[in-house]
Amino acid sequence: MNIITDHFNIAKAVVTGAGGFIGKALVKYLVESGTHVIAVDRLAIEDQDCEYVAADISTKGVLDKLIDDNTVVFHLAARANVAESVSDPRGDFESTLCGHFEVLESIRKAGSQLIFPSTASIFDSSNTLPLSEKAYVKPTSPYAAAKAAGEAYCAAYHRSYGLDIKIARMFSVYGIGMNRFAIHDLIKKIQQNSHELSILGDGNQIRDYLNIKDTVRGLVMIALKGEAGEDYNLASGVAVKMIDLARHIATLMGFPDIKIIPTGKSFPGDVPKWYADTSKINRIGFTPQISLTDGLINTISWLSQG
After folding, report:
1. pLDDT bracket for residue 200 (50, 70, 90)
2. Which domains does the chain have, with CATH numbers?
3. What does the alpha-carbon distance between residue 91 and residue 48 come to, in Å, rounded to a whole number?
4. What is the largest CA-CA distance in the chain?
5. Mean local confidence (pLDDT), 56-67
6. Can you give the pTM of this predicted structure?
């Protein structure tokens, strides 16, 4: 994993949700870069070479003793599951938004910097593509609503208290370490049946995929070079149609003639099409380093070992 060496000055970082897919990768990246990292998660974290704190971030004051005005908090803790947010909106609210408020209160008292990872699913499906940071916000799912509210709280705390808060709006993240989502599921399905592959929807859904290694680079670059109070689309800027993605993965796995069967159905809260205008994050120096093909090859290889 390439490490940013120009002006890398994050001395101390707290990563909430450190046991998740993105959290684990970010912790590893920061540790390798020489940052003193405190990994926070409600569950036990394995194979993390740093200080670990088991805690529920929705508990009042839980971060108070861990942070100071020299700390960058990467707040990844959330229930990142659109379908579950639809079936259990109260649980999603309590896991995502209540914890976010407590994190904001802790950084307000300490004067810490906050990077808040949000989601492209906050945007209304009627927006013109690609989506810029100024696209119209109208969430489709409770998960997206919690993230949109989280962004609003970030803006309010920045403007009310002068806090250094930046929003990283992620689109579709994939790569080594993932254990769910579309790319993971497609690979697993092909491993089980190389003749037929069912995909959700009509296959015309559009996504914007960014490899996990580029994602954590982007989070750190926003922390280092982004402007306080601003939001940044963290994505590749490349539109990928799901039926083309499925065919590409099958071809990379050696099954170019697999029969792809769209189910015509998706899950409640799903957004049919998104991809990002990345010009704003490009201006602070971020460009993806891993192509979709290379990232898929690495992901397929990793998932084939497990």
Report:
1. very high
2. 12-176+208-237+276-289 (3.40.50.720)
3. 28
4. 59
5. 96
6. 0.94
